[in-house]
Amino acid sequence: MGKIGIYGSSFDPITNVHLWTANTILNRCKLDRVIFLPCSSKRRDKKMQIEDVHRLNMLHFAIENNEKFIADDYEMNQNAWNISTYETLKYFKSKYKHDTIYFIMGADLLIDIGNGKWGNSDLLVKENKFIVMARNGINMLKAISTSPILRNNDDGETFHLIDKGLAMEISSSYIRDEFSLGGDPRYLLPEACYRYIKEQSLYI
């Protein structure tokens, strides 16, 4: 039985920080694989800057030399109003029946789940395991202890908290802004992705 982390994000575009974060979690948490899961452009709470095909192409370019990294377009292919992390994790647990599935997220999302802002928040926590990355200004232990949803569904193995060494804050939006303003964020993302953006004239 293996251990798989599900790393969801817009990846608009994927950055070197995404890759560094995934690799750090892979090693610290002794995962066998990390699945990069780009979110759907049909979501009402997010607005993508480029078409799905470009985000997915760059994701494949970025991880092509790491056999422990996998790209999956499951959420990209789902209907907007049917997408939820709870249903997504049910899908992956069914697909990888003999493995343990972990959802990778930041501490800011932990607070949102604890406040019941996600669909099926109670069941989501009760039935799944999470790897939670620290965010500046957020006390993860306090977030868990003060939320009935989080603390009442924590069996001691529900949350794997990573509180050191993941505080790099180079975002996809920063890179998009640099491109749109004529900057050159070449060394903030994989070289193949940088070339693809230039060739396809994306983010300008």
From TrEMBL:
EC number: 2.7.7.18
Catalytic activity: nicotinate beta-D-ribonucleotide + ATP + H(+) = deamido-NAD(+) + diphosphate
InterPro entries membership: Cyt_trans-like, NadD/NMNAT, Rossmann-like_a/b/a_fold
Segments forming domain Cytidyltransferase-like: 6-177
GO biological processes: NAD+ biosynthetic process
Pathway per the UniProt entry: Cofactor biosynthesis; NAD(+) biosynthesis; deamido-NAD(+) from nicotinate D-ribonucleotide: step 1/1
Keywords for this protein: ATP-binding, NAD, Nucleotide-binding, Nucleotidyltransferase, Pyridine nucleotide biosynthesis, Transferase
Function comment: Catalyzes the reversible adenylation of nicotinate mononucleotide (NaMN) to nicotinic acid adenine dinucleotide (NaAD).
The protein, known as: Probable nicotinate-nucleotide adenylyltransferase
Phylogenetic placement of the source organism: Bacteria, Bacillati, Bacillota, Bacilli, Bacillales
